[in-house]
From TrEMBL:
The chain crosses the membrane at residues 7-29, 84-106, 118-136, 175-196, 216-236, 277-297, 309-326, 338-358, 370-398, 441-460. It comes from Kwoniella shivajii. Keywords: Membrane, Transmembrane, Transmembrane helix, Transport. The keyword Membrane applies. It is a multi-pass membrane protein. Pfam families: MFS_1. It comes from the Eukaryota. The lineage of its organism: Eukaryota, Fungi, Dikarya, Basidiomycota, Agaricomycotina. This is Major facilitator superfamily (MFS) profile domain-containing protein. It is found in: Membrane. Residues 7-464 form the Major facilitator superfamily (MFS) profile domain.
Length: 467
């Protein structure tokens, strides 16, 4: 019989391959959109219509703005490329929206047919998405690639279910932290790989064949190869874990699992609460993530390289925190309590960003750098703790004896709420950003997260009383 540790390592390696393939195209969206415009600048094309909608939306936001001296129509003339960037962000929101729709169904299918079968089926969709991207010479076909990818991506959700299947209550949280580590590693390396290979053609191609390929066919091919290796690796190495038998009956294990004494109704209620917290947190956090590079561009005219260093700092620090702090702390402190610390850290980060545009700080390069990277440090802690903590808490509420609490269904619904937050958050945050300016936008996000923190902390205090 395969050891649980071996399965967890298999899932982690496959997840790294999957997330690298997912993150490689992220920095290419604006350039891809600009390339499609050179191929088809017709005012009736799909891309032209979408950019027109983006311009109208932005103009409407600017006309509603009561902020003076920060963003004006005149200032915005030099930022027409923002329409392209916004459209790239909208494609990211579309992907998250697809995940919101499909996640519950993937969870239920994995409960019925098994994790491995459903995971391999989703991998076929991912491979198809990459193949479409390689040959995409129109914006419509690239959009189809994103739709197929969004409706097929199930690796993160099913990896969480598989790890939960094979680990005990005392090792579950520590093992699930590996999912967060994989995210931190890949969101640091993936975009850099995408940017590096973006300017390089596919070897052994002729001028005729190049006309039939996407301008970024090489990054797309690398994504395809990563997904293909992942699919073969999973098919060979991963056993079926649905119904996995594990020894979880010792006194120590029972003590480690704080959910053992809860009734089915209490578990269902708590799962709903944790799911809502997950969705609300990502609603505001993803908005802050999306607007961060706009802020640095506005205030410092930051280049892509400078923004890359900032995001790499957040990603690397988050990975270190996941490995050295989060994994040992999840069991000791409790999942929800650790998540509450991360939400509080995000409130501090957004408060720092809100004062960054002040002239007294902006005029002092050392002070502005200190405030910016202080905020980035807090965001790294947030990235390392909140989603991992809430996911571990949701996984602990699974009860295979009840149809509504079966692992696939429970975790699928949980992920769906989070992805809905990720889909709406960037649109909400950028709207407030352009209407009221960055200071009010970040104070508003911090205020909303303060409510989320209060609810989370109240849940922690309630658990203290029970214990």
């Amino acid at each position: 019989m395969v050891e649980p540790k071996s399965i967890v390592k298999t899932v982690f390696f496959a997840l790294v391959l999957d997330l690298l393939a997912f993150t490689i195209p992220l920095p290419l969206f604006p350039r891809l959109t600009a390339w499609y415009l050179t191929l088809d600048s017709s005012p009736n094309s799909l891309l032209s219509n979408l950019l027109y909608i983006s311009r109208k939306w932005r103009s409407t936001l600017l006309s509603l703005s009561s902020t003076t001296g920060y963003v004006t129509d005149g200032d915005d003339q030099g930022k027409k490329e923002w329409d392209v960037v916004l459209l790239g962000g909208a494609m990211g929101s579309l992907f998250s929206l697809c995940q919101c729709i499909i996640s519950p169904y993937l969870g239920r299918l994995s409960d019925k047919y098994g994790r491995k079968k459903v995971l391999l089926a989703t991998m076929i969709g991912n491979l198809l998405s990459a193949i479409i991207w390689i040959q995409s010479t129109s914006f419509a076909s690239f959009l189809l690639s994103r739709l197929v990818g969004g409706l097929s991506e199930g690796n993160v959700q099913l990896s969480t279910a598989i790890i939960s299947d094979v680990t005990t209550s005392s090792t579950r949280s520590k093992s699930l932290a590996l999912v967060g580590i994989a995210f931190s590693i890949c969101f640091t390396l993936g975009p850099s790989l995408g940017a590096y290979f973006a300017s390089r053609p596919i070897p052994l191609t002729t001028s005729t064949s190049k006309d039939k390929l996407n301008i970024y066919a090489l990054p797309a091919t690398i994504s395809l190869v990563l997904l293909l290796v992942e699919t073969i690796f999973l098919a060979v190495k991963l056993p079926e874990t649905k119904g996995w038998k594990k020894d979880d009956t010792s006194i120590e294990e029972k003590k480690a699992d704080g959910q053992k004494g809860l009734s089915v109704e209490e578990k269902l209620n708590k799962l709903k609460i944790v799911g809502r917290l997950h969705g609300l947190f990502l609603l505001f956090f993803s908005g802050a993530e999306f607007t961060l590079t706009f802020l640095t561009y506005d205030l410092f005219s930051a280049t892509n390289a400078q923004n890359g260093r900032l995001l790499s700092y957040i990603g690397i620090l988050s990975a270190i925190l996941q490995a050295r702090h989060v994994r040992p702390s999840l069991t000791r402190l409790g999942e929800i309590r650790l998540a509450s610390y991360g939400i509080l850290s995000c409130i501090i980060a957004l408060s720092l960003l809100s004062i960054l545009p002040f002239s007294s700080i902006l005029s002092n390069p050392s002070m502005s750098t200190l405030v910016l990277y202080g905020s980035a440090t807090c965001l790294a802690y947030t990235s390392a703790t909140v989603v991992t903590g809430l996911t571990s808490s949701a996984a602990s509420l699974v009860d295979e004896s009840h149809p509504l609490l079966q692992r696939g269904r429970a975790l699928g619904g949980f992920r769906s709420r989070g992805q809905l937050g990720r889909a709406v958050g960037p649109l909400l945050a950028s709207s407030i950003y352009w209407i009221k300016g960055p200071s009010i936008a970040y104070i508003g996000l911090a205020s909303c997260l303060s409510i989320v923190w209060f609810i989370t902390n109240k849940h922690v205090e309630k658990r203290k009383k029970i214990e």
